[in-house]
Amino acid sequence: MTQKKRKRYLEFKLRTTQEEADLVRRRITQANKKTFQAYALKMLLHGKIETYDYSELRLLRIEINRIGQNVNQLVRYVNTFEELDNELLEALQDDIKEVKQLITNEFKRKAFYIKSQE
Predict the structure, then answer these.
(1) Which residues of the chain have pLDDT under 50?
(2) Pairwise CA distance, residues 52 & 30, whole Å
(3) Residue 6: phi, psi to the nearest 5?
(4) What does 9-54 look like in DSSP terms, one character per residue?
(5) pLDDT value at position 100?
(6) pTM score, whole prediction
(7) So what's the pLDDT on residue 66?
(8) Pfam families from the entry (predicted)?
(9) CB-facing half-sphere around the CA of 115: CA atoms within 13 A
(10) What are the counts of helices (DSSP H) followed by strands (DSSP E) for the chain?
(11) How many angstroms from the chain centroid is the CA of residue 108?
(12) For residue 60, which of 104, 112, 108, 94 has the smallest C-alpha distance?
């Protein structure tokens, strides 16, 4: 076998049944790996692959954005008719910004943790 200019040039072969192959493919997808090689190396060298479900955080962020839009509409109304306490609205906006920042930081922290584990 002629060695190409690759870092990894040794091959391992694996024989499976159709059911086993389907299960491996599902696990590769669940682990967010693009190839069998990436999945197999991670599993064989480190023993486990941790994945995180961000769907709830994404839904929470969408809801917070909607709340922020409602607050902005309220602020426009208040600025037009001057019927509400502006300090209270500013405090509310600051709280919403803080919650958004906390969620954003959590996404970044999880993404950094996942990358550092690879």
Answers:
(1) none
(2) 10
(3) -120, 150
(4) ---------HHHHHHHHHHHHHTT-SSHHHHHHHHHHHS-------
(5) 82
(6) 0.40
(7) 83
(8) NikA-like
(9) 6
(10) 4, 0
(11) 8
(12) 104
How many angstroms separate the CA atoms of 118 and 108, rounded? 16
Q: What is the pLDDT of residue 71?
A: 79
Amino acid (one-letter) located at 82: E
What pLDDT, on a 0 to 100 scale, did the predictor assign at position 2?
57
> Crossing angle for the helix pair 18-30 and 36-46, nearest 10 degrees?
80
Structure tokens at 3: 């060695």
What residues contact residue 67 under an 8 Å CB cut-off, 6+ apart?
A: 96
Given a contact cutoff of 8 angstroms between Cβ atoms, the answer to whether 16 and 24 are in contact is yes
